[in-house]
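Form P-L/3: holo structure prediction, ligand FE2/S2 (inorganic) cluster.
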Amino acid sequence: MEYSSSPRIEDFYFLRKTSGAMKNPRTKFNDVQFLEDGEGYLLPYLSSHVGPVDETRRKFIKGVIFGIGAVAAASVLDAVRGLQVPLAGGSSYVKMLLVDSSGAPIKASSITVNNPVIVLYEYPLVDEINFLFNLGDTSGNPIALASTSVTVPADGSKYTFPGGVGTHKSIVSYSAICQHLGCKPPNIHFYPPSYMKTGMPPPAFLPSSAITAAQSANAPGVIHCDCHGSTYDPYHGASVLTGPTQRPLPFTILTWDSTTDQLYATGSTGVPVYGHTNTLTGGQALTGSSTEVSNSTNPFP
Ligand code: FES
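OUTPUT (holo model):
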């Protein structure tokens, strides 16, 4: 292998993201082109779909991927897609204040009800993104989200969704990484009540089966993944409404300080985040005492 010095932890993390991008139909990896052009195809692909490739990273990626490639060209792809990069992660959940880009604490009362804009933050690991919602009814009034039992269709097990926080108990947070094959926003996003209709152009496409399932579950809106159609009920613990996913979205525990109206991420419950056997391991632990909330995209035309 060309790579000989100690790899940086962020390079291992980059390799993990490479594996995810190759499996994502939205960032489709062209196997044929890779086998024909090798590095000439791989490096531009990584720069476009994963992140910047500096010289150290280029050597690391080349060393790993073309080291595997010495075995057999076709097995390179399966090997990279199946990479389980061992990273230290965290030993326990830390309490992190949710802040905006200027470092100012997010006030729970300032979060827009039924916001179609994708609002995200990292927790508990780097690049493990979470949705932040203030959920409401069809009239835009916040809904108190009650504690409920959530079933995991994959194995029939159950766990308790503890409900919402904030003045109206309407604020909730879930992993924003689809439990089917790991698609991320904007491919997976929230459909507020006003967007619960068919006939919208991609990426705001919502099939009638999702709407029917939501109505049966008394969910005014849904989280839907455009990659393969999985639908989750954010009003009831992000339980599964339609497959192919067989697992709900993990619930990220928020603690609300009623005196300051500030929000803290303090843990996770339910199934592990996609791609992990344990939500705290297999990634790079966040450091510090706050995590930044940012508005991503509004996926609706
Ligand atoms: S990744 Fe397949 S439905 Fe989301």
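COMMENT: The chain has two domains: 9-81, 96-295.
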